[in-house]
Write a structure and sequence with these properties.
Shape: elongated
Order of helices and strands: HEEEEHEHEEHEHEHEEHEEHEE
Number of domains: 2
CATH topology of the largest domain: Aminopeptidase
Strand order of the largest sheet: 1-5-2-6-9-7-8
Strand content: 25-35%
CATH architecture of the largest domain: 3-Layer(aba) Sandwich
Structural class: alpha/beta
Helix content: 25-40%
Radius of gyration: 21 Å
CATH class of the largest domain: Alpha Beta
CATH superfamily of the largest domain: Zn peptidases
Number of helices: 8
Length: 329
């Protein structure tokens, strides 16, 4: 484990020397072998947080150092039975460019990435509850219960937000969320030294940081062991277009489908005429992915621009129908 920690630490310092580059690094920390299905991943730190004071450049401790330190603490207690993957990306402040690139060109199949825990600025403000954004970004209540139990076990006070508060969409975890991977974010909030030369290591609240690292490990351990793994909550309003339904992923050879088990009558899908037991097979003329059809449907809906109707292709009673779905603000 020490070798892994040193490798990650060296990589972090190397990345700090080239903050403008858009790159990625993914390091498997522990696993159940090559054939295991769920992969819990933890996003550690932002490698472009280099502040400039005159001719000197230094690492902004609360927006880089503590994320990495918290992550290395998780690495050091990782159990080889649990499938953790650690990822770091460049250019978060330039528009999430590194993490967005990885999400579009993943080094692991996205259908095997079941959860993302994003640690961002977790080293300050121990007197206030830590924000946990996105506790309902996974289907059902398993994720929220795991997070709540883990933080209670470590006596870590938190404030939960169903989807986002104000910081999650500025951080790297949202790049995975946009690809249909359930993601949450830990954030101990802004402070006066944010991106300023006064952000020094001696201002980090290390005892609280240790609680956060231990809570994170508990969450990753539990989510990595879930069978089946976590799935995106189809009502996550990332693009303002919740699906308002629940369903089962169905493989249809080279295509996929969603077998509807429930649809909210007042939602866009319900108003369009979607019924329980319908099989959704396409959206706006595109078939659903055979790997993650529900996540694929959710992603395509969130990417839809404007408020005009979108064509939804369903199979019902041996017939194929097209329904017009309209989301309104």
């Amino acid at each position: 484990m020490i070798t892994r920690s040193l490798a990650i630490t060296c990589a972090a310092f190397f990345v700090a020397l080239v903050p403008a580059a858009v790159a990625q690094e993914v390091v498997p920390l522990a696993g159940k072998g090559e054939n295991f299905q769920p992969i819990a991943r933890v996003n550690l730190g932002h490698v472009n947080e280099v502040e400039v004071a005159g001719d000197w450049a230094f690492l902004s401790q609360d927006d880089f150092g503590e994320d990495t330190e918290g992550g290395l603490s998780i690495v050091n207690i990782a159990n080889p039975e649990h499938p953790f993957v650690e990822g770091r990306w460049h250019a978060e402040e330039a528009g999430l460019k590194g993490s967005a690139w990885w999400a579009g060109h993943p080094t692991r199949p996205l259908e095997k990435v079941t959860y993302c825990l994003n640690l961002d600025m977790i080293g300050r403000n121990p007197e206030r509850p830590m924000d946990v954004e996105g506790v309902k970004n996974a289907e059902g209540d398993r994720l929220e219960r795991i997070i709540t139990d883990a933080c209670e076990a470590e006596k870590l006070t938190i404030k939960k937000y169903d989807h986002t508060n104000e910081a999650m969409f500025r951080s790297d975890g949202v790049s995975l969320l946009r690809q249909g991977v359930p993601a949450t974010m830990f954030f101990t909030y802004w402070h006066a030294d944010y991106h300023a030369v006064g952000d020094h290591p001696d201002k980090i609240a290390y005892p609280n940081l240790a609680k956060i690292a231990r809570s994170s490990f508990r969450i990753l351990k539990e989510t990595g062991d879930l069978e089946p793994g976590l799935r995106i909550n189809p009502d996550t309003p990332l693009g303002g277009k919740p699906l308002g339904l629940r369903g089962e992923d169905v493989s249809l050879g080279e295509k996929g489908g969603v077998k509807v088990s429930y649809v909210a009558p007042e939602g866009a899908m319900g108003k369009a005429g979607v019924l329980p037991n319908d099989l959704i097979v396409g959206f706006r003329g595109k078939p659903l992915s055979p790997q993650r059809p529900l996540a694929d449907l959710w992603m395509m809906a969130q990417q839809t621009r404007g408020e005009g109707p979108a064509a939804l292709e369903i199979q019902r009673g041996g017939e194929t129908k097209t329904l017009d779905v309209t989301w309104t603000r």
